[in-house]
Design goal:
Helix 3 packs across helix 5, helix 10 packs across helix 11 and helix 10 runs parallel beside helix 13. The N and C termini lie far apart (37 Å). The protein is mainly α. 70% of the residues lie in helices and 0% in strands. The longest helix is centred in the C-terminal third of the chain and has 28 residues. It has 15 helices and no strands. It has 2 domains: 104 residues, no CATH class; 114 residues, Leucine-rich Repeat Variant.
Length: 227
């Protein structure tokens, strides 16, 4: 369906290389977001009762695909099938992220896909995974250790989530790559909703060691309420 849509309705839509990870892909279909949504809506109409095992096989295949487009679609599938997403194990993400590079590919899987409820329901495995990600030599997993927590810390106030978020930020705050420094800023800003006082104290205690962009953007969010 992806290749057919690309040939039938060609588009010149293309993300910047550093964002999309295209420089590491052998091929990309350059589909726009509406085109991807059209493919997904058609697929769900025809496969509304897909079995969990088949869903997982599909995701495994797409994450091994040669194009960025296939990987973006995988993340959307997790959104379109919430009941099947809840059956995804943390170990699946460990495998999938090995195939992801660039902001867009990583965030298509990690941004707002898994809720606080889903992560806390299997906390032991999720905590282990996210802690391991923060210490991984793979920068995609380092970013994932932060981005995967952005939605949960917005969802609810919970000490387990708060402590893990600060632990992963501590682990990565000396990193210089913008993939990490911007993710630290993102996570801190999202924590303000449910952990405002804790974020204020953390910034004060770590003002000399946090990435400057994270300190600047989080301070601005605290003062103005704006991103």
């Amino acid at each position: 369906m992806v290749e057919k849509e690309s040939k039938t309705n060609p588009t010149y839509y293309k993300l910047p290389v550093g964002y999309s990870g295209d420089k590491n892909s052998k091929k990309d279909y350059n589909l726009s977001n509406p085109q991807i949504r059209h493919i997904l809506n058609t697929f769900k109409q025809n496969h509304s009762n897909i079995e969990s095992s088949e869903f997982l096989k599909l995701l495994n295949s797409l994450y091994k695909g040669i194009s960025s487009t296939e990987k973006y679609i995988s993340g959307y599938l997790l959104e379109y099938y919430p009941n099947l997403r809840k059956q995804v194990k943390p170990k699946n993400l460990d495998q999938w992220i090995n195939n992801l590079v660039g902001w867009a590919q990583i965030d298509s899987l990690c941004q707002s896909r898994f809720s606080a409820e889903e992560i806390l329901s299997n906390w032991k495995e999720w905590k282990k995974l996210l802690t391991e990600f923060s210490k991984s030599p793979n920068i995609s997993k380092k970013r994932a250790s932060l981005v995967l927590l952005t939605k949960p810390v917005r969802d609810i106030r919970n000490d387990k989530l708060k402590e893990l978020a600060f632990e992963n930020i501590d682990q990565l705050k000396s990193e210089k790559d913008i993939l990490i420094t911007k993710a630290i800023s993102w996570l801190l800003r999202d924590m303000i909703k449910n952990y405002r006082e804790e974020v204020i104290r953390y910034l004060e205690d770590n003002k000399d060691s946090l990435p400057k962009i994270a300190l600047r953007e989080t301070t601005r969010k605290l003062k103005t309420g704006k991103k």
